[in-house]
Amino acid sequence: MRELPLTYKITFTSEALSSHFFLFFPLRTMTISPLPHHVAIIMDGNGRWAKARLLPRAAGHRRGVSALECITESAARAGVKVLTVFAFSSENWARPKAEVTMLMKLFASSLKDWAQPLKEAGVALRVVGDKTAFSDELNEVIAETERETAGGTRMTLNVAANYGGRWDMIQATKAVLAKGKELTPEAIEAELTVPAVDLMVRTGGEYRISNFLLWQSAYAEIFISDVLWPEFNEANFLQALTWYSQRERRFGRTSEQLEQTGN
Ligand code: IPE
Ligand code: IPE
Ligand code: MG
């Protein structure tokens, strides 16, 4: 059982978030148990958030970065050990060129801004996905951020960029074969970029996986929120964790079996 500080009464603005990244305001405590070890989030709805405010899509993506700062902080504070977020899918290259260019620039500048606060918060950042498609400059920023935060033991933040679940399964399979090993689920799992997911959250109300963690979400509990990503806050995240804590994860077995074994 964990005591969690609950801070959703605080309203952050994006400016306040960047200057108060990882500040800690305990107002009251609540208990959520069991917690998911690995939470994955499909951060969707930036464009719709902007459109509803007659703003360019870029404004939605920028607010999306602030939301990620907030949720990273919430997850680390709650005791989540691995957080994997979908930042750019292998299919998102099909978007208008100006949006793709904007997203790549925002990715690089966000990584530069985050390195220090993440390091201080004990969060190790990793970028997962096919990085060969990125510019040398972006790859250098990624490598530098990963290096700088590598010592973080509190939580790992995997940022999935140019990521596709099918790509991950193929690269893992190739790695197993290259090592001359037999193709088994365990061998493939050991080569995938991230481990099995316990809780998968999708914001923006769509009921699909969009080629995210296909293998790893085989037994994930799936929480769909209608809230658009730029507005997804700590209260929404804690709601997802609470919902998860009430699920019965049967992994193919029956409820009666679980009661008998106490699992
Ligand atoms: C998710 O928000 C961010 C990325 C895919 C980069 P969207 O940009 O997909 O927002 P909607 O779905 O159009 O609202
Ligand atoms: C999934 O969102 C990818 C990310 C959140 C990065 P999309 O907006 O690309 O998904 P679809 O196209 O609606 O399935
Ligand atoms: Mg979308």
Topology of helices and strands:
Layout lengths: L2 E4 L7 H6 L8 E4 L6 E5 L3 H7 L4 H22 L3 E8 L7 H25 L1 E6 L7 H14 L5 E9 L1 H14 L6 H7 L7 E4 L18 E4 L9 H12 L9 H7 L2
Parallel strand pairs: 3-4, 3-7, 4-6, 5-6, 7-8
Antiparallel strand pairs: 1-2
- List each distinct ligand once: 3-methylbut-3-enyl trihydrogen diphosphate, magnesium ion
**What is the element string, with H for helices and E for strands?**
EHEEHHEHEHEHHEEHH
State the secondary-structure class. Answer: alpha/beta
Question: Could you tell me the mean pLDDT?
Answer: 91
Give the CA-based shape: globular
Low-confidence stretches: 1-27
Q: Count of DSSP E strands?
A: 8
Question: What can be said about the biggest beta sheet?
Answer: 6 strands, parallel
Tell me the span between the first and last alpha carbons.
Answer: 16 Å
Considering DSSP H and I runs of 4 or more, what fraction of the residues is helical? 40-55%
Assess the beta-strand content as a share of residues: 15-25%
Major sheet strand order: 5-6-4-3-7-8
Quickly count the helices.
Answer: 9
* Rg measurement, Å: 19 Å
